[in-house]
Each structure stands twice: as structure tokens, then as C-alpha cells.
Write a structure and sequence with these properties.
The chain has 266 residues and is of the alpha/beta class. 42% of the residues lie in helices and 23% in strands. It has a single domain, classed as Rossmann fold, CATH 3.40.50. The chain starts with 9 loop residues before the first helix and ends with a strand.
Length: 266
């Protein structure tokens, strides 16, 4: 699998914002921002994507200076267009090599990004380094695939289509659901006052067709399928739509979600 097949290209970023965000990120981003305590003056957002969290940060903390970072410029381009504020700086940055001075931020927030970091311990140590003493980190990770049925369905379908070499993307976001693992990463970085909470949330999709687009053209699974066999994409989409209709019906549907929200202090 090439490095490019894990990238959120411009078209994927647009579909991510339009179709995948309602499924996963609108309700959870509002909730995540609510876990920031006090009134931070400088906030670093890691893995900002298309700015689902960013738009809630600027509403909740209108006077704060927000630095919204992501490793994918295509995602940030969408975010910049939607979330416009002079208090937001958009910047391409690697969570494992943050380009900021020590003790720079009052708070760090990251929505569903930690699972993608190639060196999670280094990323946590970098977050600790750039936080001011007493600063807080707030992030969320998904519960297991089994506890997030909406993504278990496309994962099962893609494994049927590619029984010997299935595209792995769906498993990556749901690979960090052990609270002990999360706590160890934070403790090893130096954090204290660690709290990890399992939360049940709800997303939605306006239709099975929207959900199919979200799960096939709104994330890097699209590139992984294209690498294997472009002719498979419409087959996959048809099978996935049938399964979604069977599970949720043919109209707008709500989606049960399970996540972990973690907070800690430097």
C-alpha cells in the first residue's frame, strides 16, 4: 500500500465534510470542546481536518488564538474556506514533530486523530512539550468496531470483496479503544489528572446513498480500492447500500456511536 493511499485528497476532503461529518464528527466535536476547562488564550488543535472542532472552538472561545493543524493540506483547505476568523491560524504540521516552542499553549485538542499517528508516544510527548505548565489536553478515540456498527458494516463488506488483501483503512480509526493503553501513553509523556470516559453519542445520515458516499469516497479507503481494482468501487457501493438499507432503512437515519474522551493536565 502506498503512502498516498492514506492521504485525504481534495475530493475526499470535500466528501468527508459533506457526507462523513454528519455521521461521526458534528455531535462529537461539540461535546469534545465542552471538556476544555476555563478560558484558554492559546489553543492548539491537532488533526483539525475540515474544522469540525475548530468551528466549535471559535464559538466557545471567541477571544482565543487558535492554531489549527493537520498533516493533510487538502483537509485544511476545506476548513479554511468554511471557518473564517482572524483568530485562527491554519497550518500543516505533523503531530509527531510539532513546529512550536515549549510551553506555548494553554490547551490542546484533537478529535479522532491519535489513532493515525505513526508514533503515538512521541506525539503525546510533543503535546506535553508545547503545553504550558497546568495546560490541558483533550482528545477522543473511537471504541471498537464491534461497538460502532455503522463502520463494522462497510468493513465486513470490503472484507467480502477483498478476502485475501482487504483495504485496511476502516480498522485504523477503531484501533485505540483500550483505556489502559491511552493512560500509559499519557503517563509516559508526563501528564497527570488523567480521565478517560466512555461516551455514547449519535450521528446521522440523510440517506443510505449519502452514507455510501461517506464510506467509499469520503476517506482514504477510496484510494486503497483504486489501487487494487477501480472496477470494484461500484460493486462495493451497491453491496454497502443494500446492507445499510437492511440495517437502517431507506430514509434519514440516526447512528449510535461509542467513543472514549480523554483529558489530562501537564
Amino acid at each position: 500500500m502506498s503512502e498516498n493511499s492514506m492521504q485525504f485528497t481534495a475530493s475526499i476532503a470535500e466528501n468527508y465534510e459533506k457526507y462523513l461529518a454528519p455521521v461521526f464528527f458534528i455531535s462529537t466535536s461539540r461535546d469534545l470542546v465542552s471538556h476544555i476547562k476555563g478560558i484558554p488564550e492559546n489553543i492548539l488543535e491537532i488533526a483539525a481536518g475540515t474544522g469540525q472542532v475548530t468551528r466549535n472552538l471559535i464559538k466557545t472561545f471567541p477571544e482565543a488564538k487558535i492554531t489549527a493543524t493537520d498533516i493533510n493540506s487538502g483537509m485544511l483547505d476545506v476548513g479554511k474556506r468554511i471557518v473564517q476568523s482572524g483568530n485562527i491560524t491554519w497550518q500543516v504540521a505533523d503531530a509527531c514533530e510539532l513546529p512550536f516552542d515549549d510551553n506555548s499553549f494553554d490547551a490542546i485538542i484533537c478529535q479522532f486523530g491519535v489513532m493515525f499517528f505513526p508514533d503515538k508516544q512521541k506525539a503525546m510527548s510533543e503535546a506535553y512539550r508545547v503545553l504550558k505548565p497546568g495546560g490541558q489536553i483533550v482528545f477522543n478515540t473511537w471504541d471498537s468496531l464491534e461497538n460502532n456498527r455503522i463502520c463494522k458494516i462497510p468493513d465486513d463488506v470490503v472484507n467480502k470483496i477483498f478476502p485475501t488483501d482487504p483495504p485496511p483503512f476502516y480498522k485504523t480509526p477503531f484501533s485505540m479503544y483500550d483505556p489502559a493503553e491511552i493512560e500509559a501513553l499519557l503517563k509516559n509523556a508526563g501528564f497527570n489528572n488523567i480521565k478517560i470516559e466512555n461516551k455514547k453519542m449519535e450521528g446521522y445520515s440523510e440517506s443510505p446513498d449519502n452514507a455510501v458516499t461517506a464510506f467509499t469516497e469520503g476517506n482514504p479507503i477510496y484510494l486503497q480500492i483504486m489501487e487494487r481494482d477501480p472496477a470494484i468501487l461500484p460493486v462495493f457501493q451497491k453491496m454497502l447500500r443494500e446492507e445499510l438499507v437492511r440495517e437502517f432503512g431507506a430514509g434519514r437515519f440516526t447512528i449510535p456511536l461509542s467513543e472514549f474522551v480523554t483529558t489530562a493536565v501537564k
